[in-house]
Design the sequence.
């Protein structure tokens, strides 16, 4: 058991535990805070996978923007009476069965794939993933079109959410 | 003559001589480094308490603390003793875990930033190659800590104060990130060590407008100065830390002061050349002296802004950000990127001068557009005012 | 070292947890949090495959970054919709938003 393996096991256990608490917590704000813990655990996993830029981007985008948006929305749409009583609907048994069946199916597929135990090749010293990422996102023969389409998508989401959530003066 | 690295090497030799495994030696040395760096940062926080009180006193034409010790130097220790001995009141109905964790988050996210600031040419906590984005990430986590503090207190005013503070912090992150990208363009790297090393000419002389935008948005991120609506005593009592007493409040307070000093150190690293100065290659420890001097100067500028300007209203604050600062930062980013690409192979003097001219041009255009807009708005405002007019012009003037 | 299977099993478990959240929760925002867990597990999968199978090309990380952007856009629009629904129907419980149900 090397140190990296112990770190991975601890972080993965914490993230999965936090994920379970997200979907079963009674108080919705506690669920949002457990979501933050889970997202942070995933950022640590990105660091273990040598994707440093993605780890920091995960913290900035998910924890710094999305989680805060979710917490704001929970606080703005809260009815105190709704925190009591069951938080799961009447079909939760089927949901749990389906999730367990899906996990079993994925596990069985992994057993049948020979590439599952690929060993970790060390990254070459000269490879700077941040520089490579920047070049890939902006090179016309690589992923520039995807980048621009994502920008248009974000612009559409920005305008759309402002239009939807506006307080109309006539109603 | 590099004491820190020689001590580290001697300790490493000592531990390996005792027969410890290399990964354990590494772990112990890293732990020691963390302890030393955090201690230095927290001692700086204590000194900042004294500096803050003396400087605000001088700005307000009075003396400041001068009874405890010579020049009041023992005052911060008395403050800390008072905070430690205060009763730790926990209001009823609070959510225990967020209530107790948010002061820790507020201080921890500031201490973490000390790990990536290069102190001397050879001493650096951790040389990550996405340092600039890491600064933004820690700011984002501190925003989360503020929401947790505001919500956990079971107090409407704390929640309102937290909402306003978070809206302000999230809004001002946008021009801050854009202004931070400008030194990244100039240095072709996001790592702070590389940015400090590539400053043959300090970046404040190459892109002064970017430094100014970074300073303004950092002032708003800190929640200080003219942007302190969320915690002003005359507005919303103490904002989101209204229900905290004793050492928990002390952690918020020390965290805020240390954050201001850390912003000073970051500004010094990104725009003022960090540890560079005369004789710093021969005597690396002088790098710390230079860095702290520059950081203290910027901290003094931050305090100067705070204690000289009146408070902005929240809607003025947000419209200033979204309607002026963000478009300006974006335009500046495009101009700097274009100029850098066109002129990066020419003579350094031509490069610096043309960047400077481009910056001043962008700033001039922005200010004249803002001035024109302000004149139009002022005229519209004057027309609509119902003044007490004399009788003969009241008959002639229209009512709208 | 850590074999690839550990990352894939972790991502599958997180995905199934998110799926349970989507299928079993009443509050719409809780459903959205389940969707976020699923998106994050997919991202972990993508980056793990990038690191273990093709570390020379950067395609895996580009895919993951685009997933970040799409997730952010989706959360923004989704929450705007929920706030708007709350203003009209005074509820965000998914079962009670049933005007179009036949």
Sequence:
């Amino acid at each position: 058991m090397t140190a990296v393996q112990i770190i991975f096991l601890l972080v993965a256990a914490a993230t999965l535990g936090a994920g379970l608490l997200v979907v079963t917590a009674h108080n919705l704000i506690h669920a949002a805070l457990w979501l933050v813990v889970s997202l942070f655990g995933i950022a640590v996993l990105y660091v273990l996978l040598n994707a440093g830029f993605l780890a920091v981007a995960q913290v900035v985008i998910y924890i710094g923007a999305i989680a805060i948006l979710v917490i704001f929305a929970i606080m703005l749409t809260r009815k105190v009476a709704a925190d009591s009583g069951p938080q799961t609907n009447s079909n939760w048994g089927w949901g749990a069965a389906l999730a367990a069946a899906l996990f079993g199916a994925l596990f069985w597929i992994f057993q049948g794939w020979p590439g599952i135990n690929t060993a970790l090749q060390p990254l070459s010293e000269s490879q700077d993933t941040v520089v490579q990422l920047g070049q890939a996102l902006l090179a016309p023969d690589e992923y520039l079109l995807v980048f621009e389409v994502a920008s248009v998508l974000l612009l559409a989401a920005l305008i759309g959410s402002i239009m939807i959530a506006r307080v109309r003066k006539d109603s | 003559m590099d004491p820190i690295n020689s001590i580290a090497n001697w300790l490493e030799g000592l531990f390996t001589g005792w027969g410890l495994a290399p990964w354990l030696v590494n772990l112990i040395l890293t732990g020691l480094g963390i302890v030393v760096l955090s201690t230095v940062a927290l001692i700086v926080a204590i000194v900042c308490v004294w500096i803050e009180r003396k400087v605000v006193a001088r700005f307000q034409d009075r003396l400041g603390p001068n009874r405890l010790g010579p020049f009041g130097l023992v005052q911060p220790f008395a403050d800390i003793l008072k905070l430690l001995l205060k009763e730790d009141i926990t209001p009823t109905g609070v959510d225990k875990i967020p209530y107790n964790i948010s002061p820790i988050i507020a201080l921890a996210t500031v201490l973490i930033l000390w790990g990536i600031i290069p102190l001397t040419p050879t001493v650096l906590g951790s040389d990550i190659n996405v340092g600039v984005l890491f600064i933004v990430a820690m700011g984002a986590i501190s925003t989360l800590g503020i929401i947790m503090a505001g919500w956990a207190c079971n107090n409407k005013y704390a929640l309102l104060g937290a909402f306003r503070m978070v809206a302000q912090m999230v809004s001002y992150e946008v021009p801050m990130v854009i202004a931070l990208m400008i030194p990244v363009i100039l240095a072709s790297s996001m790592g702070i060590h590389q940015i400090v090393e590539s400053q043959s000419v300090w970046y404040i002389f190459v892109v002064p407008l970017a430094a100014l935008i970074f300073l303004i948005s950092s002032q708003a991120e800190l929640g200080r100065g003219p942007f302190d609506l969320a915690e002003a005593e005359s507005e919303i009592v103490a904002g989101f830390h209204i229900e905290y007493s004793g050492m928990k409040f002390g952690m918020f307070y020390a965290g805020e002061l240390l954050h201001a000093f850390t912003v000073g150190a970051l500004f010094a690293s990104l725009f003022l050349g960090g540890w560079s100065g005369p004789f710093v290659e021969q005597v690396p420890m002088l790098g710390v002296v230079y860095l702290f001097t520059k950081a203290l100067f910027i901290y003094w500028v931050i305090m100067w802004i705070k204690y000289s300007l009146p408070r902005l209203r929240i809607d003025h604050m947000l419209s200033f950000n979204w309607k002026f600062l963000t478009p300006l930062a974006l335009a500046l980013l495009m101009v700097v990127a274009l100029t850098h690409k066109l002129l990066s192979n020419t003579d350094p003097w031509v490069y610096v001068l043309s960047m400077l001219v481009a910056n001043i041009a962008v700033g001039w255009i922005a200010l004249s557009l803002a001035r024109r807009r302000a004149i139009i708005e002022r005229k519209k405002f004057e027309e609509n005012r119902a003044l007490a007019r004399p009788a003969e012009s009241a008959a002639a003037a229209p009512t709208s | 070292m850590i074999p690839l299977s550990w990352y894939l099993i972790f991502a599958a478990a997180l995905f199934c947890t998110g799926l349970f959240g989507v299928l079993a929760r009443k509050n719409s925002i809780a459903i959205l949090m389940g969707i976020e867990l699923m998106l994050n597990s997919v991202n972990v999968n993508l980056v793990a495959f990038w690191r273990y199978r093709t570390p020379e090309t950067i395609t895996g990380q580009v895919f993951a970054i685009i997933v970040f952007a799409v997730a952010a856009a989706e959360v923004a629009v989704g929450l705007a919709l929920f706030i708007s629904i709350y203003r009209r129907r005074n509820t965000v419980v998914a079962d009670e938003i049933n005007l179009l149900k036949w």
